Amino acid sequence: MKRIGLLVLALALLCGTRAPLTQAQTREFVVAAWGDPYEAGWRKALVPRFEKENNVKVVWVQGFSSQTLAKLRAQKDNPQIDVAMLDDGPHRQAAALGLVEKIDRTKLSNAKDLYDVAFEPGDFGIGFAIAAYGLYYDAKAFQENGWAPPTSWLDLFRPEFKGRVSVHNIANANGLYLLLALNTIAGGTDENVDRGFAKVKELAPNVVTFDKFGETPTLIQQGQAVIGTWNLDRVANLASTGVPVRFVQPKEGTWGHKEVVTIVKGRPNVDLAYKWVDLMLDAEEQANTAKYVGLSPLNKNARLDPKTAETVLYGPEQIEKLVIPNWEVVNAQRAAWTERWNKEVERR
Hints:
348 residues, D-Maltodextrin-Binding Protein, domain 2, 10-stranded mixed β-sheet, 15 helices
C-alpha cells in the first residue's frame, strides 16, 4: 500500500509539473480582423506559418473594421488584442484616439520592398494590401439579354436595370465610394457632396436594395440583381464558386483604400506583433493573401500566378491609379453624411 501511495504521489507530481510547462510554451496571440472568407483565407498559409515559427496559437476576433475599432475603444484601459487589421479610414480614427503604437520601420525587414502608398501618416500602422471598389455585373444575364457590359459608374442608371441594381448603405465602404464617385463625376468637392447625394437619389428607382446585411451574393445568385457596386475581392471570391459574376474598373476611376495592420497600444506581446506585421509584408505571404483572400499586394516583389493576377490590382500602374479618399475630410463628415443618407436616400 505504501508503494502504491508513493507511485500515485509521483504521478500526480509529474502531471502537475507538465501542465504549466506546456502552457508556458504556447502563448496566445490575438488578432482582430474580418471574418470569413478573410479569416479562412489567412488560415490557409499565414496563420499556420506564424504559429509554427513562433510556437503560438492565433486567436481570431472577427468583426468589420467599425466593430474592431469599437472593441479597441472599449478595451483602451485593458487591451485584449495584439494586432488589428482595419480599413484605413477607421484606422486613422484609431490612431487619432491613441489606441495604436507607432511603427518602427527598422524592425520590419520587408518594409523596404513596399510601394510608397503602404505607409501611413506618422507610421501608426502600415498598409499591407489594397481593397478596390467598382462595379460588378452578371455576365450570363448580360449575354442572354444582349446588354453591353458596363464601363462607367453611370451605367448603373441605365433604364434596362430598373429594380435590378444592388448598392450598399453608406455604412459600408461600397456605399461611401458610390457617393464619392458620383459626387466627383457630377462636379462636387471633398467638402461638399450635395451633387453626390442628388445622383444617389436619382439612382434609387433602379436599386433593388441598399445592402446593409450582406444580401448582395444572394441577390446575384437569385437573379434579382444583375449589376451593382462591390469590392473586387468579394467578386473574385463569388466567381471562384462558379457564379458568372465579373468585376469592372470604371473608366472614371476605381475607388478603394488600404488595408492596414497595426499594433495595439498597451499589450505585452509587442515582439510577436512585429513578427506578425513583418510576415504579412513578406513577398510570399503577400502572394498568398492575393490568392486566398483576394486583396491586392503592396510588396513590389510579390509574384502572382496568372489566374490570381487577373482577380486583384497588380503592379504599380493599377495601384497608382486607385482613387483613395481624403480620410481626414471624410471621417470628419461621415456621421453627418450617414444621417443625411438615412433621411434622404433610404427614407423615401
